[in-house]
Amino acid sequence: MTSTPAPAPTGRLEQRGEGHVLLLTRAFRAPVEDVWAAVTEPDRLARWIGTFTGDPAAGRVMFQMTAEEGATPEEMEIRECTPPHTLKVTAHAGDDHWLLDLELTENNGITTLTFSQPGIDPAAAENIGPGWEYYLDRLVAAESGGDPSTIDFERDYYPAMLEYYQKQL
């Protein structure tokens, strides 16, 4: 029996103005509308990260992580939603908030998802980067017919990617 090699980290930290942005990309052999559905429809989201309740048209929903045991619902404020290309939300967790942005582009049947987290503390990237690598790889698995539950955070993402993200500083 052969083991699958651990995924290589792909994220990068960029300085933009006074702040930093964490950027990760993934490519899909699918139309942009299909990838959009995977990141916006509750049933599709549930396959890889979580689901939401509420009406997105109201500008806020409650998001519940399903891939993490014991996660509590968090408010997501929808800052921009331009289907099927742009989704920008602010995740509110207690007193903390994270800006999370998704941009989708399609070229010759390949849709590229660019995930960014503007305003990230560079020192936090070593913990946050591996987490987004994990979730985006779960999305790729869900959308390519794989099983997201076979992706192992503790074995392949953290602390395995810690050193890579420390070097991004």
From TrEMBL:
Database matches in InterPro entries: ASHA1/2-like_C, START-like_dom_sf
* Provenance organism: Parafrankia colletiae
Per the record, the similarity remark reads:
Belongs to the AHA1 family.
- Name-wise, this protein is Polyketide cyclase
Q: Which residues cross the membrane?
A: none
Q: Where is the Activator of Hsp90 ATPase homologue 1/2-like C-terminal domain?
A: 29-141
